[in-house]
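agent> Task received from the user: take the single chain below, predict its 3D structure, and emit structure tokens. No templates, no multimer pairing.
agent> Plan: (1) validate residues, (2) run structure prediction, (3) serialize to tokens, (4) report one or two observations.
agent> Step 1 OK, no nonstandard residues flagged.
tool_call: predict_structure(input=
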Amino acid sequence: MSLILLLNIFFASTFIIGKAVLNYSSPIFFIAVRMLLAGFLLLFYQIVIKKKKLNLNKIEFIELLWLSIIYIYIPFIFEFWALQYISPAKTALLYSLTPFFTAIFSYHIIKERLSLKKIIGLILGIIGFFPTFIPWNLLKELNLSSFLLVELPEFALLISVISAAYAWIYIQSTIKKQIHSYITINGISMFLGGFLALLTSIIFETWNPLPIYDFKNFALLTVLMIIVGNILSYNLYGYLLHKYTATYLAFTGFTIPLFTAIMEWIAFKEVIHSDFIISSIIVFVGLYIFHQDELR
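)
tool_result: status=success, residues=296
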């Protein structure tokens, strides 16, 4: 359980780092640089240091290309675009919908059974999610004049969450085939996703000469994000997938918004509101019920 909490602390810190780096670069270009570098490092480790050969056939390459789209390209581009307008804690909270979609995908794709206790736990988790979305000062928080634009970032995050939830199930089924290691799968999908993001940045973002506003801070935060977000978080997640189901790991992700809110308070002096505390209590009750059945 301690490794799961450590994983969620890593994931929570990526929202804080991501919010900070957007002060120094455009979102899509940052995703491109981050994923290309992270993918290169992972593949370098596998091919040069571990002496592993990729040996990808056409079908495997297509599968990994598809994975790079649903696992890297769609989730991260939509998330970081939305992060420009939504606080890190609220972004993390929206990602707490992941267990709901993961459970649905698990049931339909890998036929993972959902017992009554798991269903009750998931329902409680979802109930705990809603208090934070009472739009108390939503327009003021986002500093936007149109309510349509308030909804648009949240809708973008919803697309990101659905894609990421499906990707985790896809990854779990890929790992069980035991054709390639999780590091190799991560490296290839990150590199391909980064390349697609680079093409998107060239088309939609302003390059003059690069979409970077402060190179030093951009470089420092990018390196930090790669270490915490790409290398530590995702490989620890892959390790934990061998011990727990994807649904359970996704459900424990309900702790990520709490960690993010604490970090946001430390980094940006943002106050932790009472709705966050109420949500956390309800979610932890749901998590406890879900966890009891998972242990069986």
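agent> Step 4: summary for the user.
The chain has 13 helices and no strands.
agent> Done.
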